[in-house]
Design goal:
With about 220 residues, this protein is α/β, with parallel strands linked by helices. The protein has two domains: about 130 residues, Rossmann fold, CATH 3.40.50; about 80 residues, Thiamin pyrophosphokinase, catalytic domain (Rossmann fold), CATH 3.40.50.10240. Helices cover about 20% and strands about 35% of the residues. It has five helices and twelve strands. Strands 1, 2, 3, 4, 5, 6, 7, 8, 9, 10, 11 and 12 form a twelve-stranded mixed sheet that branches. The longest helix has 16 residues. It is globular.
Length: about 220
C-alpha cells in the first residue's frame, strides 16, 4: 500500500498467508485487534500494540505475546476491537492501511461492517485494502483509481450507492461512463484481461463501491 506510514491491522477473521499478501504488507507497522494476533506468526510480523477487550484471546495467546504492549478495553463498549486498533494506528500517524482478517467469517454483520469501515477510511483520504489473503476488497469513490490485480483475476464491483459514469479498463468486459443502480448485477463477475499487467483502471463520477477480487482465481465467471 502507498503511504509513508502504512499499518497492517490484524482482525480475527480468516487469513491465508499467501506470497501476494506477504509482499503487500512488507514494511508495514502492525497493530493486532484481540484474537487477530494469532495471524502474526504465519504472516511473519510482530505487532507493536495489542488492542481489545481480549474476549477472543486465550491463555496460550496471552503467554505467547506477553511482551507486546496492551491497550485494554471493557467488553461493553461502543467501538469494535478493529475500530479501536485503527484509531490507535491513526494516533501513531498511519496514512494507509491493510486490514487482514476483515472478510468472511461466522459473523456477516462484522464482515459488512468491516467493508463500511474501510469505505469510511477511504473517504477520509486513506488508502485501504481489506483482505483474507485469498480475497481482497478495495473501496472505490469518485475519481480515478488503479487496482493492481494479476491478469485473469475474477472480481466484482459491489455498489453501495447508485454509481454515476463508471468506467472499467483492462478487463474482459469493460464499461465506459455507465450508470449503475445500487443492487444491479451488471458489475458482478468480471475478469482482469489476459496480458494486462497495468491493473484495473476505474473511473467514477459519483458514488461509492467496493471492488471485491480473488487474486489468482481464474475460471468460469458464471454465478447464481
Amino acid at each position: 500500500m502507498q503511504g509513508d506510514t502504512p499499518f497492517l491491522i490484524l482482525l480475527g477473521g480468516a487469513v491465508v498467508p499467501t506470497p501476494r499478501l506477504i509482499a503487500q504488507i512488507a514494511g508495514h507497522r502492525v497493530i493486532a485487534a484481540d484474537g487477530g494476533i494469532r495471524h502474526a506468526t504465519p504472516l511473519g510480523v510482530r505487532p507493536e500494540l495489542w488492542v481489545g477487550d481480549f474476549d477472543s484471546s486465550d491463555d496460550a495467546l496471552a503467554r505467547d505475546w506477553a511482551e507486546i504492549p496492551r491497550q485494554s478495553h471493557p467488553q461493553d463498549k461502543d467501538m469494535t476491537d478493529g475500530e479501536l486498533a485503527v484509531a490507535a494506528a491513526l494516533a501513531r500517524g498511519a496514512d494507509a492501511f491493510v486490514i487482514a482478517g476483515a472478510l468472511g467469517g461466522a459473523r456477516s454483520d462484522h464482515a459488512v461492517h468491516n467493508l463500511l469501515h474501510g469505505i469510511s477510511l477511504h473517504a477520509g483520504g486513506l488508502p485501504v485494502m481489506m483482505t483474507s489473503g485469498t480475497e481482497e476488497a478495495w473501496p472505490l469513490m469518485a475519481g480515478e483509481q488503479t487496482v493492481m490485480l494479476p491478469a485473469g483475476t475474477l472480481f466484482s464491483v459491489l455498489a453501495f450507492s447508485d454509481l454515476a459514469a463508471l468506467t472499467l479498463r483492462g478487463v474482459d468486459w469493460p464499461l465506459t461512463d455507465r450508470d449503475v443502480t445500487m443492487g444491479q448485477s451488471l458489475t458482478l463477475s468480471n475478469r482482469v484481461a489476459a496480458g494486462n499487467d497495468a491493473g484495473v483502471g476505474v473511473t467514477l463520477r459519483a458514488g461509492t463501491a467496493v471492488l471485491l477480487a480473488r487474486p489468482g482465481a481464474e475460471g468460469d465467471v458464471a454465478g447464481a
